[in-house]
Design brief:
Keywords: Membrane, Transmembrane, Transmembrane helix. The chain crosses the membrane at residues 12-28, 34-57. It is a single chain. With 74 residues, the chain is mostly helical. It has 2 domains: 1-36; 41-73. The chain is 89% helix and 0% strand. The chain has helices spanning 2-7, 9-24, 28-35, 38-73. It is flat. It starts with a helix and ends with a helix.
């Protein structure tokens, strides 16, 4: 069973993400209304800035790990 789950891990993840999106569809109009307010806009900007910061830190650490592993192999 574990082998089967491991083999289809990406497909299972995509199915679960699709189910989550479908479950959140009824909340979209209220979310759009909230984002149109000043507070919603500021929260959205904060979340987007946090995502950009997190992704840039993730990239930085991956580059550092690659450099460390490259130095260790020489």
């Amino acid at each position: 069973m574990k082998h089967l789950l491991k083999q289809y891990q990406k497909e299972i993840r995509n199915i679960l993400l699709l189910a989550l999106v479908v479950a959140l569809i009824p909340y979209v109009p209220q979310a759009v209304h909230f984002i149109r307010t000043f507070t919603g806009t500021m929260l959205l900007i904060g979340v987007l800035c946090g995502c950009v910061l997190g992704l840039s830190l993730k990239l930085h650490y991956r580059i550092m790990v690659m450099r460390i592993s490259q130095d260790n192999s020489n």
